[in-house]
Amino acid sequence: MSESSRAEGIAPSAPHRPAQILSTLKTLGFQVAVCVPDSWLGGIAERIEAETGMTLVRATHEEEALAIACGARLGGARSVLLVQNIGLLTMGSGLVALAVRYQFPVLILAPFRGSPRDPIYYHVGKGRVTEPVLRAYGLPYAVAPPLVAVLAHPDDETPIGPILVRYAREGVQVHLVIATDGAEGASNTTIPRGPELAKARAEEARCSAAALGATAPILLGFPDSKLGDFLGDQSLLFRLTQRVAEELARLHPDAVITWGPDGGYGHPDHRMVSNIVTQLMRAGAPGVPERLFYMSLPAEMIKAAFPERGAPPLLIPQDKYFTMRVSFTPEDLKAAERSMACHQTQFNAAMLQRATESTGRILNGVIALVPASPGAPGTDLFR
Description:
- This protein is an alpha/beta fold and 383 residues long.
- It has 2 domains: 135 residues, Thiamin diphosphate (ThDP)-binding fold, Pyr/PP domains (Rossmann fold, 3-Layer(aba) Sandwich), CATH 3.40.50; 226 residues, 3-Layer(aba) Sandwich (Rossmann fold).
- Helices cover 42% and strands 16% of the residues.
- It has 14 helices and 12 strands.
- The strands form 2 sheets. Strands 8-7-6-9-10-12-11 form a 7-stranded mixed sheet, sandwiched between helices. A 5-stranded parallel sheet has the order 1-5-4-2-3, sandwiched between helices.
- Helix 7 links the parallel strand 6 and strand 7.
- The longest helix is centred in the middle third of the chain and has 18 residues.
- It is elongated and about 70 Å long.
- The chain starts with a strand and ends in a 12-residue tail after the last strand.
- The N terminus is likely disordered.
């Protein structure tokens, strides 16, 4: 059997999770791991090599690695093969002639290179054919399910940060699609509104995504605070809808999170993004799942973030609608706090301190979401 897990691009911040992979392999009783030299696989290989309960064998090329893994399995040891998806293509003959023909139950863990966003252009063609080739071989495989958050601004991921960290930690590919450039959000900076601030906020978004364990953010660059300006630009909403639709069709997520119709605390850009994503789901747009969830801000969190404001009336959904309740760990919360601290143009030290002191108590280890499509209560976005 083969299983593949995708990692987007080649950025050092791409999720790798060697500790979690090793723990799972040990729990499942794997005794031998075989790998080829590769920078992406170095972290897990080093951990296996230091693990007394497992043996790491380093091979010189992929077909040799496959032969060793099959031999170990023939000798009674559960074996795992660590190669890139590109390595799967180069050892096709061995897979068919040895592993498939004689039905060796070898697990293959393969980071995915060659996605459309891979900056090394010559990998893209190889990535494009990986899954068709696996299907042609007749090999069962699984791809880590993507989770996409469609947001209006850099920093909008903050209310759901802990569960984004959780899913990235568990190996889910987490993507942030951010509609606007954030060029008008100058509440906590001396950087002037406009292109200079937009550039700073783009860097903050990249910092935040790395802290969450997400892939590099997808920045659509639409004008901040003007998504509903129909008189100023009558084509804007149609262009934004098309761009969001294109990204969701490309990413093909299993679940999507966006703002609810309330916009969290009422922000018009939040509301417009929510409307567009909901529209695409209801229209059956390619790649848009029915597992769409609305995020919200608890009243106490709004008060903690904006002590000078009163909560807008009739804003927060009734408790009965929050039927998806996703848990997170204290470590997930700490990583989310590091993510929030990346947004230096938005949160000063006092705001970060208030968030640190209050968020854990308010959320109590669970983030509640409203499903766009009514269903049974749940605790996992993918089930």
